[in-house]
Amino acid sequence: MSTEAILTSLTTILKDTFDEQDLSINLETSAEDIDEWDSLSHIELISNIESHYKVRFALGELQDLKNIGDMINLIQEKS
Questions:
Q1: 53 contact partners, CB below 8 Å, separation of at least 6
Q2: Which member of 2, 17, 33, 37 has the lowest number of beta carbons within 10 Å of its beta carbon?
Q3: What is the C-alpha to C-alpha distance for residues 70 and 18, in angstroms, rounded to an integer?
Q4: Spans in the chain with pLDDT lower than 50
Q5: Are 34 and 3 in contact (CB under 8 A)?
Q6: Residue 10 Cα distances to 24, 52, 68, angstroms
């Protein structure tokens, strides 16, 4: 799956998770850029991503992620 395709679907997932339909993300977007992104919503976001892509992330993999670009790379590795 291409980076663009994953970015598009992640944008939808993030908009739905954070209930923020005007949200705009790019490869450099991180939790610090989204006010609604706290520890509880992070768990919901990861669950939504895992469900959408039918993958499972190990805790160690998630701790190393710095931004959406890193998440896309991880999804591509797992798919």
A1: 75, 78, 79
A2: 2
A3: 20
A4: none
A5: no
A6: 11, 9, 8
The per-residue pLDDT for range 40-59, each reduced to its tens digit, is 999 999 999 999 999 999 98
| DSSP category for residue 70 | H
Structure tokens at 2: 């291409």
Rounded Cα distance, 49 and 71, in Å: 10
CA 1 to chain centre: 15
Residue 61, burial from CB neighbour count under 10 angstroms (0-12, 13-18, 19+)? middle
Tokens of residue 31, six digits: 């939790």
pLDDT of residue 33: 96
